[in-house]
Design goal:
Blueprint lengths: L1 H8 L7 H17 L2 H55 L4 H9 L1 H41 L4 H26 L5 H10 L8 H31 L2 H4 L3 H85 L7 H4 L1
Helix pairs in contact: 1-2, 1-10, 2-6, 3-5, 3-10, 5-8, 5-10, 6-7, 7-10, 8-10
């Protein structure tokens, strides 16, 4: 009881040097370790949000790539039919080719449909690429800020040092025969700080940041390339040029999708890294606050008992004072 009172409430006690040293170690542990769990909770929350954002970006990028591949198939059909139409317009075909062409008249409706679908798919790809780019930019911003900053890193290091000092103080107090029950409970709850590795949190954040930057860069390029590929000048121009531009847009869509996927993995693993440290922090803070509350209750009970004893003492003194009557002097004695 004396140890925890000195630890949390700074009550003066007449104690041995070993006990006072343990009190100091407990006070230092409480001061250094309480509050770390709240900061880690914010990091974990933002890592979860960023995982969702980059996962959406991955889906958008995959959609853009899929649409681009389908568009390439429609463009191929469109160009094949367009070449046959060109022969019909110029009359550069044999009778045999002409009769074959008559048999394929229903397929020319497919040309109109393929041309329309190609245009629509190109717009979809551009829009999906723009969405992927936006999520990568957002992911880069969040990942760049979702790290263990200098203040939190210092607090965790101070807590680790305090826990190590508490271990030494407990060993000395045990030798002297002091009560170390509550001190041991605190050490057991906070000893995880001696082995936690917070560097993994920042490493994962850095990986997510780099991946999102790559995704944003390729996404911007892919969005612009897709938009150019869907202009009328390119669509109605050289077939090989259109094909090359569309291929480039699809490659950039694939690269952006891959970068978003890697960023998602880094964000997800950052959550795991944060959780390992947060579990230690939550357990440690919980025990520290619980014992502090117990101590406050004990102190209040002690103060109440002392006050009650004081009141009784005052009442007894009042009663005694009233009961003790000094006799008045007799007249004969005065003469």
């Amino acid at each position: 009881m004396r140890i925890v009172l000195g630890f949390l409430l700074l009550f003066p006690f007449i104690a041995s040097a070993e006990t006072l040293e343990l009190d100091d170690a407990l006070r230092a542990t409480y001061t250094a370790c309480v509050g770390i769990d709240e900061n880690l909770s914010d990091l974990k929350k933002m890592a979860g949000i960023n995982t969702a954002v980059t996962a959406v970006g991955t889906g958008l990028g995959a959609g853009a790539l899929t649409v681009g591949i389908i568009k390439a198939d429609r463009d191929k059909l469109r160009h094949e039919l367009n070449q046959e139409l060109a022969k019909l317009r110029t009359g550069e075909m044999s009778d045999e080719e002409f009769f074959k062409l008559l048999n394929r008249i229903p397929e020319y409706k497919k040309y109109i449909q393929a041309n329309s679908e190609s245009k629509t798919l190109g717009n979809w790809r551009t829009g999906l690429m723009a969405g992927n780019t936006a999520t990568n930019i957002a992911g880069a911003i969040v990942a760049g800020n979702n790290k263990v900053d200098a203040d939190l890193d210092t607090q965790i290091k101070n807590c680790r040092t305090a826990v190590q000092n508490l271990r030494t103080s407990i060993a000395r107090a045990r030798i002297e025969g002091a009560d170390i029950t509550e001190a041991t409970d605190i050490f057991n709850a906070c000893s995880g700080y001696e082995t936690v590795d917070v560097s993994k949190i920042n490493t994962r954040a850095q990986g997510a940041l780099i991946s999102s930057i790559v995704g944003a860069t390729t996404g911007v390029a892919g969005t612009a390339t897709s938009a150019v590929a869907n202009t009328e000048n390119v669509r109605n121009g050289d077939e090989n040029k259109e094909k090359n531009i569309n291929t480039a847009a699809n490659v950039l869509a694939g690269a952006s999708t891959a970068a978003s996927g890697v960023a998602t993995v880094f964000n997800a693993t950052q959550i795991s890294a944060i959780k390992k440290v947060a579990d230690v922090a939550s357990k440690c803070t919980g025990v520290l606050k619980c014992l502090r509350l117990q101590t406050l209750i004990r102190v209040n009970m002690l103060i109440g008992a002392i006050f009650q004893m004081w009141c009784r003492l005052m009442l007894m003194m009042f009663i005694i004072k009233k009961l003790v009557v000094v006799p008045a002097p007799k007249l004969t004695d005065m003469l």
